[in-house]
Amino acid sequence: MPIGSGVYWLRNLTTDEEVFIGASDHVAQYMPTMLHSPSSRANRHEPLKEYLAKNISAIDYRTAPCATKRQALELEVRLRAENTCLF
Questions:
Q1: 21 contacts 85 by C-beta, under 8 angstroms
Q2: Using CA atoms, how far apart are residues 60 and 69, in angstroms rounded to an integer?
Q3: pTM (2 d.p.)
Q4: Average pLDDT score over residue span 69-78
């Protein structure tokens, strides 16, 4: 998991659905909070928080490091355009 900037990609192993693709400037710090304490995330992700809380045992994640936050955001946009996610 990247310590700095990068992209994370969540997938439900049970349903084989792509759940969410996002970017962060501190992936290693953000991911554990998102996956293990979804209730602590911002309100704009309320449906995602609820989904993660209900399906946490089936969630798989992939990450990709990036040199800068800007590169992470550009990769996020490209991956979201190429992949259909639930959120």
A1: yes
A2: 23
A3: 0.85
A4: 98
Q: Which CATH architecture best describes the domain 6-82?
A: 3-Layer(aba) Sandwich (3.40)
8-22 in b/e form (b: 16+ CB < 10 A) is bbbbbeeeeebbbbb
Per-domain residue ranges for the chain?
Answer: 6-82
**Dihedral angle computed from the Cα positions of residues 32, 11, 80 and 48, in that order, rounded to the nearest 10 degrees:** -60
Residues 71, 9: Cα–Cα separation, whole Å: 15
DSSP 14: T
Structure tokens given for 76: 């996020």
Position of tokens 């209900």? 54
